Amino acid sequence: MVWDELNSFNEDLFEGKLKIESNLEKKWLKISMEDKESLPMLVKVKFFDLSEGAEDRKRLRIRFTKKRGDLSQWYQIFKQMQETQLEDVLLAPRVHHAAAE
User: Fold this and answer.
1) What values do phi and psi take at 14, rounded to 5?
2) Torsion of the alpha carbons at 29, 92, 57 and 47, rounded to the nearest 10
């Protein structure tokens, strides 16, 4: 779900400027951006399983960690993500059921 929302955000609202890579085996995504006007940016998105053995529910913690680039630029992009495409995914206090994914 997060992968789809990030790609939708990138294409619909960020003009495809972000490069999004995934490694499902290691449970992370990488978001990078090369821009002539600013430093290259790299953000790692890591997923942690909080389900605690519950098979019918899947609950994840998502951590965004800026690895390289301008911190203020990343905060602006992340704020735009929160306010638009990823609002329900990132700020949801409820448990998402695996069947809904």
Assistant:
1) -125, 15
2) 20
Reading the block at residue 19, the tokens are 């490069």
First to last CA, the chain: 6
Q: What is the pTM of this model?
A: 0.72
Whose structure tokens read 């995934």?
A: 22
- Residue 37 carries which DSSP code? T
- Which of 25, 42, 30, 40 has its CA nearest to residue 2? 30
| Strand, coil or helix: 57 | strand
Determine the distance from the C-alpha atom of residue 39 to the mean position of all C-alpha atoms in its chain, rounded to a whole number.
20
Find where tokens 């993500």 sit: 81
Q: pLDDT per residue over 43-67, tens digit each?
A: 999 988 777 766 666 777 888 899 9
